[in-house]
Design goal:
This protein is α/β, with parallel strands linked by helices and about 400 residues long. About 40% of the residues lie in helices and about 15% in strands. The strands form five sheets. It has a seven-stranded mixed sheet with strand order 2-10-9-8-7-3-4, with helices on both faces. A four-stranded antiparallel sheet has the order 13-14-17-16, with helices on one face. Helix 10 crosses helix 12.
């Protein structure tokens, strides 16, 4: 296959580290068994690996005090299980940021139709594309939140949202407000995102994105005692997906133990071992290799800035990024005058072997602010751990040639 210049890391990071590929191969050859379903040695090894993975995810996230991890086949399944199972009364107010992915928005839309909840949008400044905390605090005092769902990093603009401030403000106005953070673009990139954030109840992640693991595994980090209480309380949570857990098999009701009550079916041990290997890259033993994570973040930050600045210099290129560049990482959305986003993406692929994402990126709300209708969305270029300066130069030259045609 010809060389591909990969700029679609926001969808899935690529390439995967060799250690991840080796771990997946080894699991398929020698460890592809059910977890929690057998008393033989191979099953016991698989169970220990799952236990190690949970602990390492907690260490990576900074949620080590009483936290727990539920493993799911994907972040989308995680949001369906979590948001779909939490009981909200009619008229409950659920806030979302304009940056939310359809993994959140479509679940809440279905919940709105069924339970008649009220969905309100967190205000942002239309010019800077930044969250407006003053207006949010006013909104929360006027329409008290029952739930808040926010992305940690926007998959469209690369904006790092102030999740700590938003969640703390929600809890200040209602200590029982449920706070949910979409960390799919952040875990593994932002060092210990939950370390000092006691106001976050649930943090959802995807193994195949910034953690550099394989497809087939994601999950929910329970970050607070309150988050565990909600799941265990039948009045607060009804299991959204039911099935076998390997526990209490004669009981037709789902088990009440966490995380098992949210892990129906067989855990993908192959994907789990791949993710374990991915996290091991920046964990040293059971301790977070802080310098490595900071190095990853700064490398992506520098590459993001370089890509942004060079695209900004090209006549006819429109950028869609937050005004505060200190809160911007990895993702640069843009368009080229005279072309739809899809046309630009096709030219980049066909003529230059450059892989980007085009369109609306499964994020329905933020495009109301980007004014990108005439382009049918945006071209999204996203750098990753293995993006090089040479790749960025090649990418920018390609966009320049398209803009000058």
């Amino acid at each position: 296959m010809d060389k591909v210049y990969y700029f679609d890391n926001a969808a899935t990071t690529f390439p995967k580290p060799d250690k991840v590929i080796e771990a997946v191969t080894e699991a398929m050859k020698n460890g592809c068994v059910n977890v929690g379903r057998g008393s033989y040695d191979m099953a016991a090894v698989a169970a220990r690996d799952i236990d190690r993975l949970r602990k390492k995810i907690l260490e990576c996230s900074g949620s080590t005090k009483g936290g727990n991890v539920v493993l799911t086949p994907s972040a989308t399944i995680a949001f369906n299980m979590l948001l779909g199972g939490i009981n909200l009364r009619k008229g409950s107010i659920v806030y979302v940021s304009p940056f939310e992915h359809n993994a959140v928005m479509r679940v809440l839309h279905a919940k709105q139709q069924k339970e008649e909840i009220i969905i309100r949008e967190l205000p942002i400044d239309k010019d800077s594309l930044l969250i407006d905390m003053d207006k949010i605090e006013y909104e929360f005092s006027r329409y008290v939140p029952d739930m808040v769902c926010i992305s940690h990093i926007s998959n469209v603009t690369g904006y790092i949202l102030p999740i700590k401030e938003i969640c703390e403000s929600a809890k200040k106005n209602n200590k029982y407000a449920v706070t949910v953070v979409d960390g799919c673009q952040a875990l593994g990139l932002i060092s210990r995102p939950l370390l000092d954030n006691n106001a976050v109840d649930y943090y959802v992640f995807a193994g195949h994105k910034t953690l550099y693991g394989p497809f087939g595994i994601g999950g929910i980090i329970f970050h607070s005692a309150y988050s565990v209480d909600i799941i265990k309380n039948r009045e607060s949570y009804v299991p959204y997906i039911c099935g076998g857990t390997g526990m209490d098999s004669l009981n037709m009701d789902m088990v009440q133990d966490s995380p098992e009550m949210l892990e129906s079916g067989s855990i993908d041990i192959v994907a789990a071992k791949g993710l374990l290997a991915a996290i091991d890259i920046f964990l040293q033993g059971n301790f977070l290799h802080e310098n490595f994570l900071k190095e990853i973040f700064m490398k992506e930050k520098i590459r993001t800035e370089k890509l942004t600045e060079e695209l900004r210099e090209i006549d006819g290129v429109h950028l869609y990024i937050p005004k505060n560049r200190d809160e911007h990482i990895s993702i640069v959305s843009f368009n080229v005058e005279g072309y739809s986003s899809q046309e630009t993406g096709m030219i980049l692929n066909d003529d230059y072997r450059i892989a980007v994402r085009t369109g609306y990126h499964c994020a329905p709300l933020i495009h109301n602010y980007l004014k990108d209708e005439m382009f049918h969305g945006t071209v999204r270029a996203s750098v990753g751990r293995y993006t090089t300066d040479e790749q960025i130069r090649y990418f920018v030259n390609a966009v320049r040639e398209i803009a000058q045609e």
